[in-house]
Every structure is written in C-alpha cells, then in structure tokens.
Design a protein that fits this description.
Layout lengths: L1 H6 L5 H5 L2 H7 L5 H5 L3 H7 L9 H19 L4 H6 L7 E2 L13 H12 L7 H10 L3 E2 L20
Parallel strand pairs: 1-2
Helix pairs in contact: 8-9
Keywords: Glycosidase, Hydrolase, Metal-binding, Zinc
Organism: Klebsiella pneumoniae
GO molecular function, one term: DNA-3-methyladenine glycosylase activity
Length: 160
C-alpha cells in the first residue's frame, strides 16, 4: 500500500487508483523479494509502460522501498508493528464534523515519515504517510455523522 501511496505525490489519488492493476502486474503483485531484485533493465522497461506513472524517481522508490522493507525484516523489525506503534496500536478516531476539518498531516504522520526516511524509504512525506494511515485503518477520518464513524449517526457526541 505504501508503494501506491507514494505514487500520488503531485497527482490525484484517482489517477493512481485507475492504474493499480497495472502496478500489481508491473511490480510482481508487490512481492517485496521480487520487487527488491528489480534492476536498471527493469526500470528502463517500466519507463516505457503506459499503464503506470512513468516517473523514474517513483519507480526507483518502489524498488528501494521494497529493499528497505526487507532490511527491516532482516533486522527483526515487523513493518506492521512498526507502523501501528505510531498510533499506540489502536486506530485513532478524528472528531471532525466536516471534511474540511480532517487534517492532511498529524504529529503521528510527521513521526512516521521521519522514521521511514531514516530507514531508507522514499516518497513518504507526512501527507503521503497520513493518506497511508487512512487507507490502512490506522486513523478513522469519517465525519462524525457518518455511519462508518464509531457511534455513527447515533453518537451522542456528534458535532460536539
């Protein structure tokens, strides 16, 4: 997921979503071992693939991020546990009544971004990390009146 999130830098998310099947094919279903083994010839081939975003840095980031992910595993660090540690291992619930109140970054996404970069990940700025956190359920940004928000429309705290 973090690989796709990084592709949206400077683009709309719908652009990336429309290409996700092509990304799965181009990057071996995101198998980190296979992606990490990709080299310069693969990059050149992918730069010609109209089914994905043909940005050298973003393609290199997917490969480099697979290598960084594997390095974490080799050092005994679970990526899942690592990511969840930034929200104290429980989904964080935003209390926003309108979409305009939902943040694009938080101190947690700032910290996650910094920690990922320290481990060698690329295209993982705070906004991308926050989007990743939303997509993976680390944060629940449904507005308070939404049925997907804890308590949904029956929540006595809606709007408060």
């Amino acid at each position: 997921m973090i690989c796709l999130e990084g592709q949206q830098a400077g683009l709309s998310w719908i652009t990336v979503l429309k290409k996700r099947q092509n990304y799965r094919q181009a990057f071996h279903q995101f198998d980190p071992v296979r992606v990490a083994a990709m080299g310069d010839d693969d990059i050149e081939r992918l730069l010609q693939d109209t089914g994905i975003i043909r940005h050298r840095g973003k393609i290199q980031a997917i490969i480099g991020n697979a290598r960084a992910y594997l390095a974490m595993e080799e050092n005994g660090e679970s990526f899942t546990d690592f990511v969840w540690s930034f929200v104290d291992n429980a989904p964080q619930v935003t209390r926003a009544a309108t979409l305009a109140e939902i943040p694009t970054t938080t101190p947690a996404s700032d910290a996650l971004s910094k920690a990922l970069k320290k481990r060698g990940f690329k295209f993982v700025g705070s906004t991308i990390c926050y989007s990743f956190m939303q997509a993976c359920g680390l944060v629940n940004d449904h507005v308070t009146g939404c049925f997907c928000h804890p308590g949904g429309q029956d929540d006595p705290q809606v709007g408060h």
